[in-house]
């Protein structure tokens, strides 16, 4: 392609040299700093997706994590009611503001835009998907550790568009025992695989009822087959929530934050361990970069094996601007010689894919700071580094003598091969 800039993620051309899928991710509002995005999905409405979304946000907030809910259930928004929120949306030139619950959970929902809560929302799919994107782009979310997206029910076009537009780090599937669980789970798992998003687990809501008189579990909708299904699709069944009239009662009163549902805790613990696929390095965003940066280079891409690279691309960056760039030969010696080559060009920083401990120590002994986990085009890698849009890892990573290393996500990986 004559005008190729090697940034496949932002290119829509149907090209044989494509190295990564086109990215449709939308930028959040400039006043948002959102660390992790978790999508809550279900096969159909009414199974308790909004309840699980709200309980998770409330519980993560109680544990000290700044939590938010983007209510993507545009035509049936029920989240504000559960939190007792009646606020209407307001904003300024930079965008709208989310409402804040009594414990500090931020949320935004179509209800905040309607004159009357009972006004019907009769929009078609593309308008609904556009609305969710606007909640992401135009709401000033501020600092958020965990954003929970109450997804539109189903696995059709609208949730798919949302998954393409928002940097979702994982999906939680909510089912109820009477749903066609197997088919639903299969569809969601297939959708998640298409989008390369991990399925964090399945929650079975209304799983059983505990009788006040005999204190026994009653499986009103019959025995659950979720364990078999979870095993078949290689997903964890992370929680079973009881059917409990006090839940519905507290939700109706807008007091969901007062509910104590111990069965939700395994999900809370699991969420604490979720790795962000799209983390933004906020510390380094503020940093002004004045560095000479080398990247192992092969036909525009970050060459994944430092010790065997034939070329480096060297960028001189002054006040975050690239003032000079060139491709140099690496010679034919091992990694100790490569360090000397880099020093000849006054390199201060090395961005690469994987690197063994020996090479890393040799570079660092020479005063070169090494960051691993980069893949894709060099142009994108340097742009992401300067913008701070990468989770920087300085760990030594793979032993490339033992296996090939493929980074096929369109994000910078943490450099930890056990994740792949
Ligand atoms: N485990 C439960 N025990 C008692 N009531 C529940 C339980 N789960 C959900 N409910 C109630 O069932 C109703 C539907 O739940 P919810 O709104 O969370 O479902 P949903 O899947 O988000 O549906 P929709 O997509 O239509 O919004 C709510 O009134 C909620 O309070």
Layout: helices, strands, pairs:
Blueprint: E1 32-42, H1 49-62, E2 67-71, H2 79-82, E3 91-92, E4 95-96, E5 99-100, E6 106-108, H3 125-138, E7 142-150, H4 157-165, E8 170-175, H5 181-195, E9 199-204, E10 209-210, E11 217-218, H6 226-232, E12 237-240, H7 245-252, H8 265-272, H9 282-285, E13 291-298, E14 301-302, E15 311-318, E16 321-329, H10 335-344, E17 349-351, H11 357-365, E18 369-371, H12 378-387
Parallel strand pairs: 1-7, 1-8, 2-6, 2-7, 8-9, 9-12, 13-17, 17-18
Antiparallel strand pairs: 3-4, 5-6, 10-11, 13-14, 13-15, 15-16
Helix pairs in contact: 3-4
Bound molecules: adenosine-5'-triphosphate.
Keywords: ATP-binding, Hydrolase, Iron, Iron-sulfur, Metal-binding, Nucleotide-binding
Pfam family, one: Nitro_FeMo-Co
Family: Belongs to the Mrp/NBP35 ATP-binding proteins family.
Percent strand = 15-25%
Relevant CATH superfamily of the largest domain = P-loop containing nucleotide triphosphate hydrolases
How many helical elements? 12
Helices and strands: which structural class? alpha/beta
Give the ordered list of helices and strands. Answer: EHEHEEEEHEHEHEEEHEHHHEEEEHEHEH
The span between the termini is 31 Å
Instruction: Compute the number of strand runs.
Output: 18
Overall form: elongated
CATH fold node name of the largest domain = Rossmann fold
Low-confidence stretches: 281-285, 397-420
For the record, the count of structural domains works out to 2
Hetero ligands: adenosine-5'-triphosphate
CATH architect. name of the largest domain: 3-Layer(aba) Sandwich
CATH class label of the largest domain = Alpha Beta
Strand order of the largest sheet: 5-6-2-7-1-8-9-12
Task: Report the major sheet.
Answer: 8 strands, mixed
């Amino acid at each position: 392609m004559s005008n190729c800039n090697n940034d496949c993620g932002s290119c829509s051309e149907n090209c044989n040299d494509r190295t990564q899928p086109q990215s449709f991710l939308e930028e959040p509002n400039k006043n948002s700093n959102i660390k992790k995005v978790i999508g809550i999905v279900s096969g159909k409405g009414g199974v308790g997706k909004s309840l699980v979304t709200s309980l998770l946000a409330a519980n993560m907030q109680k544990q000290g994590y700044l939590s938010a809910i983007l209510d993507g259930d545009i035509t049936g928004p029920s989240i504000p009611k559960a939190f007792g929120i009646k606020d209407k949306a307001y904003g300024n030139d930079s965008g709208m503001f989310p409402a804040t619950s009594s414990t500090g959970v931020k949320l935004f929902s179509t209800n905040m835009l309607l004159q009357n809560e009972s006004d019907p929302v009769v929009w078609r799919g593309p308008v609904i998907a556009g609305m969710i994107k606007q909640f992401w782009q135009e709401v000033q979310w501020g600092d958020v550790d965990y954003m929970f997206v109450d997804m539109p029910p189903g696995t059709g076009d609208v949730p798919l568009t949302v998954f393409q537009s928002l940097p979702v780090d994982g999906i939680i599937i909510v089912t109820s025992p009477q749903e066609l669980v197997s088919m639903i789970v299969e569809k969601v798992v297939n959708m998640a695989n298409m989008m390369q998003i991990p399925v964090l687990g399945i929650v079975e809501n209304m799983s059983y009822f505990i009788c006040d008189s005999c204190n026994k579990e009653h499986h009103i909708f019959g025995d659950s087959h979720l364990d078999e299904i979870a095993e078949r699709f290689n997903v964890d069944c992370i929680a079973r929530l009881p059917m409990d009239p006090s839940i519905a009662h507290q939700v109706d009163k807008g007091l969901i934050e007062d509910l104590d549902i111990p069965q939700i805790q395994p999900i809370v613990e699991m969420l604490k361990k979720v790795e962000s696929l799209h983390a933004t390095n906020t510390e380094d965003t503020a940093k002004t970069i004045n560095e000479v940066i080398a990247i192992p280079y092969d036909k525009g891409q970050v060459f994944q094996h430092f010790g065997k690279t034939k070329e480096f691309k060297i960028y001189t960056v002054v006040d975050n601007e690239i003032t000079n760039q060139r491709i140099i030969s690496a010679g034919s010696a091992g990694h100790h010689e490569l360090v000397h080559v880099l020093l000849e060009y006054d390199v201060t920083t090395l961005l690469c894919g994987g690197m063994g401990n020996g090479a890393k120590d040799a570079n660092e002994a020479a005063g070169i700071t090494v960051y691993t986990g980069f893949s894709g085009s060099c142009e994108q890698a340097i742009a992401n580094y300067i913008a701070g849009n990468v989770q920087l890892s300085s760990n030594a990573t793979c032993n490339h003598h033992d296996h090939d290393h493929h980074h096929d996500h369109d994000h910078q990986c943490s450099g930890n091969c056990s994740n792949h």
